[in-house]
Amino acid sequence: MTGFAAEAFEAGGRRWRFEARSVNGRGLELRLRLAEGTESLEPEFRAAAAKRLARGSVSVALRPDEAGETGAPALNLAALDTAIAAAKVVEARAAAAGLDLQPASLGEILSLRGVMEAGAAAPDETAAPAFRAALDRLLSALDAARAEEGGRLAATLAGQIDRIAALTDAAEAAFAEQEAGAPARLAERVSRLQEAGAEPAPERLAQELALLAVKADVREELDRLRGHVDAARALLSAKGPVGRKLDFLTQEFNREANTLCSKAGSAALTAIGLDLKVVIDQLREQAQNVE
Predict the structure, then answer these.
(1) Strands 73-75 and 116-118, how do they pair?
(2) Which has the higher per-residue pLDDT, 195 or 143?
(3) What does the pLDDT average to over 145-172?
(4) Is 216 exposed, middle or buried (0-12, 13-18, 19+ CB in 10 A)?
(5) Mean pLDDT value across residues 129-140
(6) Strand, coil or helix: what is 122?
(7) How far apart are CA 136 and CA 182, in angstroms?
(8) Contacts of 39 (CB under 8 A, 6+ apart)
(9) Burial, 272: exposed, middle or buried (Cβ in 10 Å; 0-12, 13-18, 19+)?
């Protein structure tokens, strides 16, 4: 199920931003990208997300909100030492080459990227409750976005299931027509045999007619298709994750459609069976998006 949510908040004297993105996935794949100093909260964040999400590829990122940064600038001593050492090397190389360079000012060194970091201090333990509350709000917003997408997806799935039901009814009508015409087709074959000089025994004809009727009987497949339609509609109205069950049900749909095509004794029934397979495949693709 696709969705996006963002949550800006303040914790430990700094502004932070959570972002969550969800895309389709067969199971739950959770990836966390946390800002420096918040890594210790990862197990707690991961457990909280797993309780709220059942399926999908979900990415959760936490970073300082640079646009709303409120922390005081901090001096990065390691970066400062590197900058000073680099300045000395440049001065020495310039002197050796006979170049007269002006020494770097303090302001120029402090303005170098990385020497001064805005709000670089990591949050302490007192900030943890604010992170937890923000994550809870983020997951609620992501749930809402996924639910909205789910509503649109449910309408699409319902339409596909209705189409399968209609094709099943059409298959039943085509089968009835096929069954009614079976004696005439057999009589035509017998007539051709007789014209060729063969004279089938009446008992043999009865056996052939019975065998043809059994081989071409698709009533069981039609009954099972209707049962699967009812089950699919029940899943759409059920509470909680149903994606895996719906995915499995599409396999059962496809099995019955394949059998119906293999048994079809008329062009009309074959065409309906092929249409069924197309719609079932569309249903299967959409079922991959359901939690």
Answers:
(1) antiparallel
(2) 143
(3) 91
(4) middle
(5) 92
(6) coil
(7) 66
(8) none
(9) buried
